[in-house]
Amino acid sequence: MVALTDSGYITSSGSTHTSYRKFCGGSFHLHIILSKAIFVLGLSSYYHDSAAAILRDGEIVAAAQEERFTRLKHDSAFPRNAISYCLRECNIGINDVDHVVFYDKPWIKFERIIATYLMYAPHGIKSYLKAMPLWIKKKFLMRQNIKKELAFKGEILFSTHHASHAASAFYPSPFESSAILTLDGVGEWETVTIARGEKDKIDIIKEIIFPHSIGLLYSAFTYYTGFKVNSGEYKLMGLAPYGEPKYVDMILKELIDLKEDGSFKLNMRYFNYCAGLTMTNNRFHRLFGGEPRKPESTFEKKHMDLAKSIQTVTENIIERMAKYAFSLTGEKNLCISGGVALNSVANGKLLTQTPFNNIWIQPAASDAGGALGAAYNIWYEYLHNERRVKRNAQKNSFLGPSFSDEEIEGYLTENAIACKRFEPDMLLDWVADRLVEGKIIAWFQGRMEFGPRALGNRSILADPRKKNMQSIINKKVKFRESFRPFAMTVIRERLFDFFDFELNNPYMLFVLPLKKEARIYPGQELTGFDRLRLKLSDIPAVTHVDYSTRLQTLKRENNPIFYDLLMGFYEKTGCPALINTSFNVRGEPIVCTPDDAYRCFLKTNIDYLIMGDFILDRDAQKKERPESANATGAALD
Q: 309 is in which domain, residue-wise?
């Protein structure tokens, strides 16, 4: 067992609000900023969730993950398509960009990797030989590679990983000042930071460093329960309510030494991620009674209990960290980012278990959001611009490509796709009627979302009152595990129909319990996946087996057309909510273009695809796929 007598936090060296040297290692010099617009392009790549984001005079213009263009989920490649899109959205070329910044410092990360391999040598030789070619070819020469990829003539700047996360959380937030918590697997060395943001400055106060990582601890259980690391953590979170927390004491006794302030150290005797090719080792497997679950194999009660146990421990750690951040900063607001910030169940607990009045989470909290944070760091910390707080600087995270009705019509005509066109008011009434009938609707409108959540522009919609809808969409539309829950979008003014919380949650980043008055108690006890048969509320398709739901609150000002559709459904049914799940199938990214949408539509059992003002009926479609993949100008290379 690990012995940890003092706090596991390390006191940071101080402010992230530093000079030019921080970003590129050169001597400081002044920039004379002329009256033309200043463009800052932020990049993340080569790890997972590559992305690009661009600021014009400090305002977000565009941001997108590379996966949406290449159709490779969590694509880690250099984000050339996302960059091309961002430049096109600004109507500029690469040499109109004033500053290009990468979201972390590869040579510091390389230092950490080499130090770790030396510590575990010769055990990690296989992992070392696998990793080094990519480092030598791309990552270690990042500056030269970026300049070559972009044909960019200016300086390539570098932020640090957790500074990028912190900036992505604080600068787009509606707060003048706040505590900031960043949590992920690992950046350069840091895995957790606690910081304070005020106006245009962020000071990192405390940090936890590798190999002690809440993200990697959660990923170890993701791996052990048979899910893919950096992808299956959502599944582990969804599996947890089916289990009991019977392994919590064992985890706290054997795997982690957790302190009251949320700091911790892991017992590395049980983990293999430092130098091996797997997350866990034989000692871990013996502790929990067997080898890791094989992907796609049957779930046992043990896997459900493990999921519940690590979820409980994770919530405990994050709660303690947040309370400690409050005591350190005295702030009433909290901003969060990093991959662990996508644990929406833990986020929901923070609302009731910590003293913060307001919590804002970066919608693209993983490495994709690091591109945006890096750009913000340049704007505020390198260029020393004054911050003007905006209520919706993130622009509802609708930061990706959009397609006009004319572009959609051109695509449909060129590919001879059967469709009907309605006027907007008639369209919304028609779609609401189909939802009432129990039809499943693919909804493609406006700008694509930045981040992993569909927020009403690239969504699959259905009636949450129908008990079997959860099973139908999982099996016949998404082609994914039957236990996976669905999120709901609720009219903000009707929030209290289901919840006891005062909450604006446009980014679908909190899971909350239904209020007792909205619950149905079935009077019978079932276990495991049998609990899916129970009707637990009047919106059973979005009520998880523990009476919780992940929700998005919707105001008309955030998304008028989606709001009006939801209001139309409410007026017809008295239910102010819809199932809202991402428009994709298992293993694929959310759709980006009309062609992506149509292809996804054809290979599912979705009843209707709505693109702009156009309605596509499944029964009217030819079964073959269209030949064209870029009729709307979607090819961005």
A: 214-360
